[in-house]
Amino acid sequence: MDYIVANHRFTIRGKAPQIFQKHFTCGHPFQTINNSNTEEKFTVVLDSHLEDWSHKPDLFSQRKKISVFEYENSVCEIFQCKNEYLIRLEFKDKKDALLIVSENNNTVFLTNFSSQEQTEIYDFQFLLWLIYGIATLNENTVAIHASTIVYQNQAILFLGESGTGKSTHTHLWQKHIKGSFVLNDDSPIVRIINGKPMAFGSMWSGKSAYYINESYPIAGMVRIVQAKQNTIKKLNKLEALAAVYPSCPPMFAHDKRLSENISEILSSILIETPIFTLYCLPDLDSVSVSFSAIFENLKR
């Protein structure tokens, strides 16, 4: 089963490919057949027999924990072992953890996730997001936590913490600005191509099923802040860095290689892309304010 996201092709292999493919619905728009023109970036091998290193101190004894965080009803730990990675997802209500071990310079990822599992596909979707990030960061590619609208073949990314109103704002654009549509509602992929930041739809869109296999140049990024009136500010480079950086995968910040890759991508974004902070209410006027600032800026 081959997939292409942001022009990166990867393969998922398992013992029951038809069952897996049926339930992996977020991947359907990105599936490709016999695409030999695109080099395979990595492979994910399902149904792998992996021993849980948390129960065996001598297993991967040189591992170093680089991140731990809560995700839904689980705790995710990411380790570095030499130049490769271990990922462990421990659930609060299940006995066995989901495991991933990378091999061959992070081009092969083994996981004990079962290709016959029907109810836990969302957990695998999250693990695949981590795998994709690790495997593609060195290709000027990063997942940005954002809700993304497209207007006149240009993408605008709305950034912010969960609950600040990113999705609300993009849906207001979609409702009130004719011809606009949501590309992705949680984790679009930003890739620098020939020095220009491009936004790609992805198979990771939070709880909204915007699985759209399209890409557009980025017209701007806007960090949403709730306020009692609608105002917008274009940011200088230092302010822009502070606005965009928190929307990059935080679990990679403590790994030298991954954090350096993110820094390089951010440098390209800040050179090419206007960044704003929108202080707003969830109303039509906030759409007018952000729309005017972004597209007036492009005319200059």
Structure, explained:
Helix content is 25%, strand content 34%. By secondary structure, the protein is an alpha+beta fold. The strands form two sheets. Strands 3-1-2-4-9-8-7-6-5 form a nine-stranded mixed β-sheet, covered by helices on one side. Strands 10, 11, 12, 13, 14, 15, 16, 17 and 18 form a nine-stranded mixed β-sheet that branches. The model has no long low-confidence stretch (mean pLDDT 90).
Q: How many independent structural domains?
A: 2
Strand residues, percent: 25-35%
Shape type = globular
What share of the residues lie within helices? 25-40%
Number of separate strands: 18
User: Based on helices, strands and strand pairing, what is the structural class?
Assistant: alpha+beta
CATH architecture of the largest domain: Alpha-Beta Complex
> First CA to last CA: what distance?
46 Å
Give the H and E element order: EEHEEEEEEEHEEEHEEEEEHHEH
Reading off the top of the CATH hierarchy, the class of the largest domain is best stated as Alpha Beta
Radius of gyration: 20 Å
- CATH-derived topology of the largest domain: Phosphoenolpyruvate Carboxykinase, domain 3
Sheet having the most strands: 9 strands, mixed
> Which ranges are low-confidence, i.e. pLDDT below 50, for 5 or more consecutive residues?
none
Total helix count? 6
Mean pLDDT: 90
Strand order of the largest sheet: 3-1-2-4-9-8-7-6-5
